[in-house]
Amino acid sequence: MTRILSLKELDIQVKKKKSFLCIGLDTDMNKLPTQYVRNALAVVNFNRQIIDATNDLCVAYKLNTAFYEAMGAKGWDCLKQTIELIPKDILIIADAKRGDIGNTSAMYAKAFFEDLDVHAITLSPYMGKDSVSPYYEYEGKWTIMLGLTSNEGAKDFQMQKMKSGKHLYEEVLETSKDWGNEKNTMFVVGATRVDALKGIREILPEHFLLVPGVGSQGGDMEEVIKAGATEEGRLLINASRSILYADDGKSFAAKAREEAMQLKLSMDIGFTK
Amino acid sequence: MTRILSLKELDIQVKKKKSFLCIGLDTDMNKLPTQYVRNALAVVNFNRQIIDATNDLCVAYKLNTAFYEAMGAKGWDCLKQTIELIPKDILIIADAKRGDIGNTSAMYAKAFFEDLDVHAITLSPYMGKDSVSPYYEYEGKWTIMLGLTSNEGAKDFQMQKMKSGKHLYEEVLETSKDWGNEKNTMFVVGATRVDALKGIREILPEHFLLVPGVGSQGGDMEEVIKAGATEEGRLLINASRSILYADDGKSFAAKAREEAMQLKLSMDIGFTK
Fold this sequence. Notes:
Two copies of one chain form a homodimer. In chain A, helix 5 packs parallel to helix 6 (about 130-135). Chain A is about 40% helix and about 15% strand. Chain A has helices spanning about 5-15, 40-55, 65-70, 75-85, 100-115, 130-135, 170-175, 195-205, 220-230, 240-245, 250-265, and strands spanning about 20-25, 60-65, 90-100, 120-125, 140-150, 185-190, 210, 235-240. The first copy, chain A, is globular and about 55 Å long. The longest helix of chain A is centred in the N-terminal third of the chain and has 15 residues, at about 40-55. Chain A has an eight-stranded parallel β-barrel with strand order 1-2-3-4-5-6-7-8, surrounded by five helices. At the A-B interface, helix 3, helix 4, helix 5, helix 6 and helix 7 of A face helix 3, helix 4, strand 3, helix 5 and helix 6 of B.
């Protein structure tokens, strides 16, 4: 366990780069630029080019484990090799959305915080406190809890009303924020839920929020920053497909950089205060 | 995609073997019998002995992915090799509790239903219908949705009351049961929740229920069967640690068989009707 980035170090990176950008390395072998063969090694090489072209513009990379698991054991190696390519001052998030009973969570924590040694992992909090507590045993590592997700299905349960009059997602945020603190916990809030973001900021005035859904899923950058940024920033705004697949030919890395640059520049409104 | 077991075939297996037993291959390298070295190959060899000693007594094996992921890429191979050792009339469940947006779920479905080719995967339904629908594209495969879990933390959210007066887990069951049907969907209900099991059976009169928590977690076999078994059976009762680690020396496989046999015999009350 060697990779650690503190809240203070993250705040500094965000301000230094004037960027909330988190790039999602949801690399799909079948969507690689046409010059690549379709195998796990090609995925690592593609990721390397993307990382080389964008690492001065972003403060985090998020690796969606599903895309690597779909390649089997080779995918797991590919995940590990990609992690090794990321500069050490950039936050590495395993987007795994795990959630299980305590003795199982302890094994997941081992997989992600020891074997892969990422800084942070996304978790589903619905099995309750004891399903999350094993991750907190790893001092310096981050858990990122699902708050309110960006997909249509968020309406099925997360946005339903509880007996207390609150929405389920509000109950989840209010309860789970006390399992850790702003120095070891972040929350996922979809960019398509801007209406809810202001209320969520009242519940979580200090926590980093990881916001997916700008770009392919239709969330609006300016609205997200207005509703979600604090004095310190405390936002990670994720884009994946719009950057990775900005071009499907030889200039994919340059186009990915252009797209990342545009996104970063559109974040400037968060740094004018 | 070659491994398929239909509801009818499962019903036949349960009746033929007079068994609801699902054996959880949550194999922890550090808990292997003392004669084993601690590596991934040893885990496969241990699993082989457990499977050889118990496959006439159980109707399902459940592989908890966390225990394999904790070994990295080798763990994924180990998962695949273990799956190959299981006789073809026995249900293979990947206990993965995945849950993510649609395009990510499609990748998990590929990982589990194509690459690993298991019959069934456990899923967290809290991200809603579109997070689960990609799994239903695989005809003949099973999804197993978290209903009410066996751990203490189930009280944090699952057992909270909704505005409708129902518990959250009841809302989840009532909504998600219509995403599929009893021929492609099962639900997880913890053995420590017997009080709730009767009500859950009223919501789900036809579905298979996967019941963990008998044994190490303290659930009572007779009560689970009385409250949960239907005319057709439709129960999978899981035991993991009590079987795998029945003995830590050379006779571990024989002791595992003894423990599995005792559990199977204690299920006889479900087959006297």
